[in-house]
Amino acid sequence: MENAELTPTAWAILGFLSLKAQTGYEILRAAKRSMEAFWGVSNGQLYPQLRLLSELGLIRAAGEAEGPRSRQRWEITGEGRAALRSWLESISSPVQIRDENLVKLFFAGRSGPELVGRLLDERKRIFAQFESVIDAVLPGDQLPEAEQAAALGAPELLFRYGKHFTKSTMRWIDQEEERMREAFRGDRDDRPGTDDSRTPDETEGRDEGGRADQDEGGGEDRDEGERPDRDGLSGRGLDGKGGGN
User: Could you report the per-residue pLDDT of 104-120, keeping only the tens digit for each?
Assistant: First the structure.
């Protein structure tokens, strides 16, 4: 059977049934505690795919329906195992990420650093929530013993991947926030009137000179050495010497 004939949900169902016979409800629970964060399976997807897999001869009913809700237990067939093995050995589809927050960050640059900062804060909250989902997989909800043995440790591998992914993203956000702060400080320092390389004479002349000219001479030109003493210190001439009293 060609892999393209089955949906991602169908392959997940075959995978879970390869571990042990299960009802649709049990498959949903297993999917929730193991792969919900990256491969969701819903009721609306599950039961139609169970019927399809049965019609294709890849799974079959295992005994009669059980319990007050008449839940049917399913098991994988030999043909189903062969199809699953073929899918596992095939080339995986390229990873496709649909991330609204990243799209917003792409366009937010022209709106200024404040909006970009808010979006980075939002991304922190998103990944904190994602990490809580990963934490709920293991060790909070251990797989049954038979299922754990059949999985050969793969659930722990995915758990470690999820934790590494979230921590790496958090570090990236911290680095980008620091880069933005540095860029903002640099931009502020480059603005007119913020040059700290001015000499004391230039600073004093810019801060005080305009008001002094208006008070003393209505804006007339004045020799640097004749600047009035406002702070109890004599004005300095261009030669750097005190003007004297």
Answer: 999 998 888 889 999 99
Please report which helix (H) or strand (E) contains residue 107, including its range: helix 100-108
**Cα pseudo-dihedral 196, 202, 206, 209, rounded to 10:** 160
Report the C-alpha gap between 59 and 9 in whole angstroms. Answer: 14
| Nearest of 65, 68, 74 to residue 47 by alpha carbon | 74
pLDDT in tens, 205-217: 545 544 444 554 4
* 174-183 contacts, C-beta under 8 A, 24 or more apart: 176/120, 177/117, 177/120, 180/113, 180/116, 180/117, 180/120, 183/113
| Residues 147, 153, 158, 161, Cα dihedral to 10° | 160
Question: What are the residues facing 242 on neighbouring strands?
Answer: 236
> What is the percent of the chain where pLDDT is above 90?
36
Mean pLDDT value of segment 25-47: 83
CA atoms within 13 A on the CB side of 159: 16
Signed CA dihedral, 226, 228, 229, 231: sign only: negative
